[in-house]
């Protein structure tokens, strides 16, 4: 059984793991929270295709997309990060939490 709520191929599951690792490393959150954030935002998606569009961006890109609200130019060293808004983590009783 996968820790991800959406249908995923093995390659996509590995890629989602990389995104979760990026989020944990960049933002100091647990892997469980990173996986919950992925599940919460993408639970209605299907990632069964080997050439899925998520592969068109690096895990770092998706980490920022999933952690912050709105558009954040993370690649721009001059960006004012104080104005970026963190998305709230899924509530503790949400089914997105599949890890402890």
Mind summarizing the main beta sheet?
Answer: 2 strands, antiparallel
Taking all Cα atoms into account, the compactness measure Rg is 13 Å
Tally of domains? 1
Number of beta-strand segments: 2
- The ordered H/E elements are HHHEE
Regions with pLDDT < 50 over 5+ consecutive residues? none
Average pLDDT, rounded to a whole number, is 92
Distance separating the two termini: 15 Å
**Helical proportion?**
25-40%
Protein architecture, described:
The chain is mostly helical. It has one domain. It contains 3 helices and 2 strands, in the order αααββ. It has a two-stranded antiparallel sheet with strand order 1-2. Helix 1 (about 10-25) crosses helix 2 (about 30-40) and helix 1 (about 10-25) packs across helix 3. The longest helix is centred in the first third of the chain and has 18 residues, at about 10-25.
Secondary structure layout plus pairing:
Layout lengths: L9 H18 L3 H12 L16 H9 E2 L15 E2 L14
Antiparallel strand pairs: 1-2
Concise structural overview:
The protein is mainly alpha-helical and 100 residues long. The chain has one domain. It is built from three helices and two strands.
Q: Main attributes?
A:
100 residues, mainly alpha, 2 strands, globular
């Amino acid at each position: 059984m996968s820790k991800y709520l959406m249908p995923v191929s093995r390659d996509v599951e590995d890629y989602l793991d990389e995104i979760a690792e990026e989020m944990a490393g960049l933002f100091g959150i647990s892997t469980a929270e990173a996986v919950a954030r992925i599940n919460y935002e993408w639970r209605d998606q299907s990632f069964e295709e080997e050439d899925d569009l998520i592969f068109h961006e690096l895990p770092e890109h998706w980490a920022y997309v999933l952690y912050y609200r709105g558009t954040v130019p993370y690649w721009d060293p001059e960006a004012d990060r104080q104005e970026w808004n963190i998305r709230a983590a899924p509530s503790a009783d949400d089914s997105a939490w599949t890890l402890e």
